[in-house]
Amino acid sequence: MSTSIPALCSDGQVLAEVNGCLGLIILNRPQALNALSLAMIRDMRTLLRAWRDDDSIQAVAILGQGREGKGPAFCAGGDIRFFHTAAKAKDPALGDFFTEEYALNHEIHVYPKPYIALMDGIVMGGGMGISQGAKLRVLTERSKLAMPEAHIGLFPDVGGGYFLAQCPGHVGEWLALTGQVLGAGDAIALGLGDVFVRAEELPGLIEQLRHADQTSAEHVVATVMERAELAPEPQLLAHREAIDRHFGFGAMLEIKASLAGDNSEWAQQALGQLNANSPLALAISLELVRRGRNLSLAEDLRLERNLVHWCFEPAWRDAHCETLEGIRALAVDKDHQPRWSPAHSEDVSPQTVQAMFESPWAKHPLADLQ
């Protein structure tokens, strides 16, 4: 093993290579769409810290391992089956997962060397968290970006309150509440991606990064940019006026009423997306994006750590847990019939929502984030 590659703990779920001045991170859990485990998060932090302090490493690139004959996935998010199992078992590793994941998200955003994310295929939830802080976010025509957490009774975490809040107009609210999937053209137009590389060019690019001479950070970036092309035309920006009009309302009931009064196919689809999601999660998500416009990344991640604690806290009391119910319906029983409580947005207490933003700790687990 190269002296530039420290010992890893994820049993091959994260692979690392060094080529000249470039460190490569390969997410290697393809059968799970490269969903993040706690061990993977720890390995990524180990690598990034080692390479940060290694003068011979000038840039880092990250990609997801593909599956033979299957569509690609950069990273489909956190391991929600682990969330379900750990919460049921009252396993403290669940809290460690979120604390360390959010710390990793922060480290990526402030990383002092170019960090390049090859975001081919599915990029959702935690996959957005490990890519949105990249200096160069590379998309293909197969890229599918989304923050669909409200569909499992959660909220757009991993810094979503920060980076969605930076989208133009009220696009951040729309993405947080509906979980809408974006292709490359829309993602780049909305500031969630940087450059477009055709998928057929990606194997050659990866081969160059892994084996061609990489002598400087500038050379690594140039290697990527040589294959960049004009991004596809955005498909969803035709709805920008409607997005801002409907999702600019102050409360969920107003947003839903506004969409209900719009007979367009787009508005009815958006309303259907909202009606499928947890009313409590929608209220939290809306509040998070609104607050996120006035927060630093570190402040947002601390707020998200508060929220995720309260999202799972009912499981520790063997009470109804909205997030566990959402995961059950999607990934455990797969009946896609979550029993949300409360079942309607009008029954969500504003006091409950506000209380979930409060810290349960005397010393916050992310207090050291700057």
UniProtKB/TrEMBL annotation:
Domain named Enoyl-CoA hydratase/isomerase: residues: 23-357
CDD domains: crotonase-like
Any one biological process term the GO annotation gives: L-valine catabolic process
Single annotated GO MF: enoyl-CoA hydratase activity
Gene3D superfamilies, sorted: 2-enoyl-CoA Hydratase, Chain A, domain 1
Keywords, comma-separated and alphabetical: Hydrolase, Lyase
Pfam families attached to this UniProt entry: ECH_2
E.C. designation(s): 4.2.1.17
InterPro entries (alphabetical): ClpP/crotonase-like_dom_sf (IPR029045), ECH_dom (IPR045004), HIBYL-CoA-H (IPR032259)
Protein's recorded name: Enoyl-CoA hydratase
Species assigned in the record: Inhella inkyongensis
Organismal lineage: Bacteria, Pseudomonadati, Pseudomonadota, Betaproteobacteria, Burkholderiales
